[in-house]
Amino acid sequence: MKKLTAALAAAAAFGVVAFSAEAQTYPDRTVTIVVPFAAGGPTDTVTRLVAEAMSKDLGQQVIVENVGGAGGTTGAAQVANAEADGYTLLLHHIGMSTSATLYRSLPYDTLNAFEYVGLVTEVPMTLVARKDLEPADLKSLVEYAKANKDTVTVANAGIGAASHLCGMLFMTAIGTPLVTVPYKGTGPAMTDLLGGQVDIMCDQTTNTTKQIQGGTIKAYAVTTAARLDVLPDVPTTDEGGLAGMQVAIWHGLYAPKGTPAEATARLTKSLQVALKDPNVVARFAELGTTPSPEADATPEALKAKLESEIARWKPIIEAAGQYAD
Ligand code: ASP
Fold first, then answer.
1. How confident is the model over 112-141, as pLDDT tens digits?
2. Is 123 in the pocket of ligand 1 (CB under 6 A)?
3. Nearest alpha carbon, ligand 1 atom 8
4. Is the CB of 187 under 6 A from ligand 1?
5. What is the pLDDT of residue 266?
6. Is 93 near ligand 1, meaning CB less than 6 Å away?
7. What is this structure's pTM?
């Protein structure tokens, strides 16, 4: 019996030693960040830039895996169920908070299924359309949409996605429901907008700025209080007569619940380094956004943001009575 106890104690001690040795060398292999939307979209763009900078800091490859579908909840579920070893992460946006109410039965408990790494960025939205859509400005777009409500199509990345929320804000602001077309991400939706297969989309500057600047799509408004430096000719929703249609899309980095604290602390540090990386700062600026300040790139700030955003959106979604399931 004594022997057994001693053996167990030795095994336990060995376990502790093995664990801390592993924690000290974390990461010793490739880290995967799941993006819960298709490749080529705004969340993907932000994540790839951050992943590249984190990879430099961590000394290991950080790769992106796109798991689109159901407004981001498919990818979030995959990470919630992944091994909690610090090698599978999730970079999701505001949809993490809205889906907690929009989906009455989610395969994960939003507030308790993840460890928090930190906030990443907050991105403005733009109301855009295919290049040849008739209306010249936001006021005429509103009239046009109202007059053609059964045929005007609005692309989004599924219920709970940022593009869905923003599209809903637009339809609520003009008091007219339009035809929505869901994609696995606004990357593929942009391809259809460029090809003229869909009419309108409300999406983040990280996906639309280059296209607007290149004149390949039409921009009607930015959803910020002031105009953006990178898109000085695009009026705000307020200027265009849709006061109140303001929204910014915050993003956070998460790990599955139970990920060792040493690993999440290392990831938070690496995120903070990445958000100061000159390439990240410059590319974010070109795309109309800024990295979160260090004080926000922390587990505490992300947790507080998620909690307050769930509380903010819950009554709005419940009052609208529109659920995804
Ligand atoms: N973030 C986008 C959205 O919510 C989707 C995407 O990243 O593709 O619409």
1. 999 999 999 999 999 999 999 999 999 999
2. no
3. 185
4. yes
5. 98
6. yes
7. 0.89
SS3 assignment for the chain: CHHHHHHHHHHHHHHHHHHHHHHHHCCCCCEEEEECCCCCCHHHHHHHHHHHHHHHHHCCCEEEEECCCHHHHHHHHHHHCCCCCCCEEEEEECHHHHHHHHCCCCCCCCCCCEEEEEEEEEEEEEEEEECCCCCCCHHHHHHHHHHCCCCCEEEECCCCCHHHHHHHHHHHHHCCCCEEEECCCHHHHHHHHHHCCCCEEEEEHHHHHHHHHHCCEEEEEECCCCCECCECCCCECCCCCCCCCCCEEEEEEEEECCCCHHHHHHHHHHHHHHCCCHHHHHHHHHCCCEECCCCCCCHHHHHHHHHHHHHHHHHHHHHHCCCCC
Cα(154) to centroid(ligand 1), Å: 14
Q: Which of 35, 37, 120, 247 to mutate to test the pocket of ligand 1 (most atoms within 8 A of CB)?
A: 37
